[in-house]
Design a protein that fits this description.
318 residues, alpha/beta, Arginase, Chain A, eight-stranded parallel sheet, 10 strands, globular
C-alpha cells in the first residue's frame, strides 16, 4: 500500500517556483483565504549604511524552500509535536509595489498589503526590506485594538527625527510608540554603539519600553523574558536579522557583534506563542549579497517557519 510520500509530485526544494515555503501564490489581495499570508516588502531606501535589503524577500523565499515540509508537516522529536500541518493554510501574496525614491508611496503600498491580509482574517507575515517597513505594518493595525510590540534587534530604532527624516530604519519603534493603540514595547538584544543617543533610550522608557541587552536576556532566560510581556497582550513581533550575532547572520547592512544565537530567539518565540496572541510578524534587514554562504536567509526562513509552527500549535492546529 502506498503511503502519503508516494502520491503526487515529489516536489523537491530545488524544483518549481520559490514562493515562501513553496506555498500557493495568491496575487489577488481581495481573494486571500488563508490562516497566514506572507508578503514581501523589498524596500531599503531607509538605510543609513549598507543597502541591499531590497533583495531580502527574494532570498528568504528561496531559502524557505529548504523547509517546504510537504504533506506531513514538520515533526519535532524534542517536543513530540508536528508543526505546520496541512490544516494551516499559508499563502504567499507576492510583494508590495515599491516606487523607487518615493518612501511615502512605497510605505502606503506596504500598509495596503497588510490591511488586505488583516481584512481577510489572516496572520500577516512581512519580509523586508529595511526596518522602516515596520512603520506601515504597524499603521495597518489602526482601529484593530491594542497591540504590544516585541522587537528583536541590535539597535533601539527610537530616533524621533534626524534632519527632517522621521521614517528611516532608525525610527520604526519611535513611530510605533507614537500610536495610541500600541500599549508598550519589549526591545531585546539592544547593544553596543547604537543608532540612538541617550535621549532616545530615555524617551523609549518614558513611552513604555522594556529594554534588555543580549547579556541581560541571557541572565534572565527566555521564559522569564517572555513573562515580562504584559499578560493578555496581543503581540506584534518584529525581528531585525542583525539582532543575531553576525557570526551566524552576516548578511545584513548593520552587523553588530555579540548578538543572539539561534536557540535563544527560538525558545523566546515559543514561549511568547504559548502565552500570548501573536497578531502579526515581520522580519527585516536581510541583505543577502553580504553573505555568500546564504546562511543568513536560511536562518531567517527557519525562524519564520518555526515561529508560525509555534503560533498555530498554540492555537490548536495539530
Amino acid at each position: 500500500m502506498a503511503n502519503t510520500y508516494d502520491t503526487g509530485r515529489l516536489n523537491l526544494p530545488f524544483v518549481g517556483i520559490a514562493t515562501f515555503g513553496k506555498r500557493p501564490y495568491q496575487p489577488d489581495w481581495d481573494r486571500i483565504e488563508a490562516d497566514v499570508a506572507v508578503m514581501g516588502a523589498p524596500f531599503d531606501f531607509g538605510t543609513q549604511f549598507r543597502s541591499g535589503a531590497r533583495f531580502g524577500p527574494r532570498s528568504v523565499r528561496e531559502a524557505s524552500t529548504l523547509f517546504s515540509f510537504g504533506h506531513a508537516g514538520a515533526y519535532d522529536h524534542e517536543d513530540d509535536a508536528t508543526y505546520l500541518p496541512q490544516s494551516v493554510r499559508i499563502v504567499d501574496i507576492g510583494d508590495a509595489d515599491i516606487v523607487h525614491t518615493d518612501t511615502a508611496r512605497s510605505h502606503a503600498n506596504i500598509r495596503a498589503g497588510v490591511e488586505a491580509i488583516l481584512k481577510a482574517g489572516a496572520l500577516p507575515v512581512v519580509i523586508g526590506g529595511d526596518h522602516s517597513v515596520t512603520i506601515p505594518c504597524i499603521e495597518a493595525f489602526a482601529g484593530r485594538g491594542p497591540i504590544h510590540v516585541l522587537q528583536i534587534d541590535a539597535h533601539l530604532d527610537f530616533v524621533d527625527e534626524r534632519h527632517g527624516v522621521r521614517v528611516g530604519h532608525g525610527s520604526p519603534m519611535r513611530r510605533a510608540a507614537d500610536k495610541d493603540y500600541v500599549t508598550g514595547l519589549t526591545q531585546l538584544g539592544i547593544r553596543n554603539v547604537s543608532s540612538t543617543a541617550r535621549d532616545g533610550y530615555e524617551a523609549a522608557r518614558r513611552m513604555g519600553s522594556d529594554i534588555l541587552s543580549v547579556r541581560q536576556f541571557r541572565k534572565l532566560g527566555p521564559e522569564a523574558v517572555a513573562a515580562r510581556i504584559p499578560k493578555g497582550a496581543r503581540v506584534y513581533v518584529t525581528i531585525d536579522i542583525d539582532g543575531f550575532c553576525p557570526s551566524i547572520a552576516p548578511g545584513t547592512g548593520t552587523p553588530s557583534h555579540g548578538g543572539f544565537l539561534y536557540y535563544e530567539v527560538l525558545e523566546l518565540l515559543q514561549q511568547v506563542a504559548r502565552a500570548h496572541d501573536v497578531v502579526g510578524m515581520d522580519l527585516v534587514e536581510v541583505a543577502p549579497d553580504y553573505d555568500p554562504s546564504q546562511s543568513t536567509p536560511i536562518l531567517a526562513a527557519q525562524i519564520l517557519l518555526n515561529a508560525l509552527g509555534f503560533i498555530f500549535h498554540a492555537r490548536g492546529f495539530r
